[in-house]
Amino acid sequence: MQLVEMGVSVEAVKEARWCKSRHSGGNGNCVEVARLSDGHVAMRNSRFPEGPVLVYTREEISAFLGGVKDGEFDFTLS
Question: What Pfam families does UniProt report for this protein, alphabetically (predicted)?
Answer without folding.
Answer: DUF397
